[in-house]
Amino acid sequence: MDKSRSIAGKVVGTNLRAVRAEMELTQEQVAEAARTTAQYVQEVERGAKLPSITMLMRFAGAVGIAPARFLEGLTVPKTPPAPRRSRKKK
Predict the structure, then answer these.
(1) What pLDDT digit, counting tens, does each position of 9-23 carry?
(2) What's the gap between Cα 5 and its chain centre?
């Protein structure tokens, strides 16, 4: 997993764990409602897996929140601008 995926995975996982704890739900309950496994929920919460958009929507539906809540705290990494191509003279 590259660095930005790793950071995103940790943010999503931390937010999933926090929401689940706030709602006093077990990993098994979230997994059942999201139609996945408790092991997958655990892997996401640890940041070992980065869920797809579809899976984020299923998690959101399982706990009754907007999917964007899982992305709170995630920042876009700064990347250097792409090199400019020189124009060929005709």
Answers:
(1) 999 999 999 999 999
(2) 9
CATH number attached to the domain at 3-66: 1.10.260.40
Q: With residue 44 as reference, give the H or E element that holds it.
A: helix 38-46
Structure tokens at 90: 């005709």
Distance of alpha carbon 77 from the chain centroid: 15
User: For 50-61, what is each residue's pLDDT tens digit?
Assistant: 999 999 999 999
Rounded (10°) angle between helices 3-22 and 27-34: 110
Rounded CA separation 77/43 (Å) = 24
pTM of the model: 0.80
**pLDDT of amino acid 76:** 75
